[in-house]
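Deliverable D2.4 — example input (C-alpha cells):
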C-alpha cells in the first residue's frame, strides 16, 4: 500500500508545479469572478476585456518565444486575419459567428504553416525581419482589398457572439466570455509546457543543434508551435471583432506586433503568469497615463526602458519570489529573489 501511495504521488496532476498552477489558476478565476463587484463603469470593463484579449495572444506568443525561443514580430497579422475572417464570414456571408471563428482559426493555421516552414529556418535578426515583412504584407492587403475588407475605413456591422439566445453585446457580458476563454486556454498551454513536446521546445530554445543531436525534430516542432501561437492570436482577433463590432487595419499593424512582444518581455519570457502580468501592465498603464497625453509616448517609453534595464527577465521572477516568501512565511528573500530564479530548461507555469 505505501508503494501505491508513492506511485500516486508521482502522478503528473499531483506534482508541485501542477499544484502551484492549479492554485494560481483558481486564484485568478476567483479574482475574475469577484472583480465586477468593484467595477463601476463600462469603461473599466472595456479595459479589462482588452487585457483578456491581449492575454490570449501573449499566451500563444510566449509558447513560441519564451519556450521555443523563436522570435515573431508578425502576430498582429494573425490577430488581424482572425478578426477580418470572422467579421467577413459572419457579416457578409451570414455564417454563424462561432463557426466563423473556427473557420478563421483553421485558415490562419494553414497560413501560419505556409509562412512558418520557410521563415523558421531563419534565425536572429533575419527571423525578425521576415516576420515583420509578413505583417507588412498582411497590413497592405487589408488596406488595399477595400471591396472586401472596407479598406482604411474598416469593416463595420460585425454581429456579437451569442449562446442560447444570450448575446455578449455589452461590456459586462463580454467580460465573462473573454476571461472565460483566456482562463481556459491557459490550461492546454500549461499542459503543453510540461509535456514531452514542451521539454523538446525548451531544448530547442537552449540549443537547437544540441536538440537535433538528441533526435528532436526541431523543424517540425518549431512550425507546430508557430501554428499554435497563430491560432491563439486568431481566436483573440475574432473575439476582438465580435466585441467591438468593427475592425480596422490600423489595429493590426506592426506596432501592435511590437506591443505583443513587449508584453512578453515585460511579463517575463517563458512564464505563462508573466504573460498575464505583461498584458495587464501594458494594457492598463497607457490608460492610467492618459492624463499626460502630450507626453504619453515619452513617459511610457521611459517606464519600459527602466523595467528592461533593472528587470531584464521581466516581472515574473520578482512575482515568483514574492509568492515563495509569502508561502514560506519569511521575509528575508532567501530562495525566492529574482536573481535566483531557475534558468534555461526549467518550465515555469
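Example output (designed residues):
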Amino acid at each position: 500500500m505505501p508503494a501505491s501511495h508513492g506511485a500516486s504521488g508521482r502522478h503528473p496532476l499531483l506534482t508541485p508545479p501542477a499544484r502551484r498552477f492549479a492554485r494560481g489558476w483558481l486564484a485568478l478565476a476567483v479574482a475574475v469572478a469577484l472583480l465586477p463587484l468593484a467595477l463601476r463603469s463600462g469603461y473599466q470593463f472595456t479595459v479589462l476585456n482588452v487585457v483578456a484579449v491581449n492575454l490570449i495572444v501573449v499566451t500563444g506568443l510566449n509558447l513560441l518565444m519564451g519556450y521555443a525561443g523563436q522570435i515573431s514580430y508578425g502576430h498582429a497579422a494573425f490577430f488581424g486575419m482572425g478578426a477580418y475572417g470572422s467579421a467577413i464570414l459572419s457579416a457578409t456571408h451570414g455564417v454563424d459567428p462561432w463557426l466563423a471563428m473556427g473557420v478563421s482559426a483553421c485558415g490562419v493555421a494553414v497560413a501560419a504553416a505556409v509562412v512558418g516552414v520557410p521563415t523558421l529556418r531563419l534565425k536572429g535578426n533575419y527571423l525578425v525581419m521576415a516576420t515583420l515583412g509578413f505583417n507588412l504584407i498582411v497590413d497592405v492587403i487589408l488596406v488595399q482589398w477595400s471591396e472586401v475588407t472596407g479598406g482604411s475605413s474598416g469593416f463595420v456591422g460585425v454581429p456579437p457572439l451569442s449562446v442560447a439566445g444570450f448575446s455578449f453585446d455589452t461590456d459586462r457580458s463580454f467580460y465573462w466570455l473573454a476571461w472565460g476563454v483566456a482562463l481556459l486556454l491557459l490550461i492546454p498551454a500549461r499542459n503543453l509546457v510540461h509535456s514531452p513536446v514542451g521539454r523538446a521546445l525548451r531544448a530547442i530554445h537552449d540549443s537547437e543543434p544540441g536538440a537535433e543531436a538528441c533526435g528532436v525534430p526541431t523543424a517540425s516542432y518549431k512550425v507546430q508551435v508557430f501554428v499554435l501561437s497563430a491560432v491563439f492570436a486568431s481566436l483573440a482577433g475574432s473575439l476582438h471583432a465580435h466585441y467591438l463590432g468593427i475592425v480596422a487595419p490600423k489595429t493590426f499593424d506592426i506596432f501592435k506586433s511590437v506591443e505583443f512582444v513587449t508584453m512578453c518581455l515585460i511579463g517575463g519570457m517563458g512564464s505563462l503568469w508573466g504573460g498575464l502580468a505583461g498584458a495587464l501592465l501594458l494594457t492598463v498603464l497607457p490608460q492610467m497615463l492618459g492624463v499626460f497625453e502630450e507626453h504619453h509616448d515619452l513617459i511610457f517609453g521611459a517606464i519600459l526602458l527602466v523595467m528592461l534595464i533593472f528587470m531584464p527577465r521581466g516581472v515574473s521572477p520578482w512575482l515568483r519570489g514574492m509568492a515563495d516568501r509569502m508561502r514560506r512565511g519569511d521575509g528575508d528573500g532567501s530562495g525566492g529573489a529574482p536573481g535566483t530564479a531557475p534558468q534555461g530548461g526549467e518550465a515555469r507555469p
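The chain has a mean pLDDT of 86.
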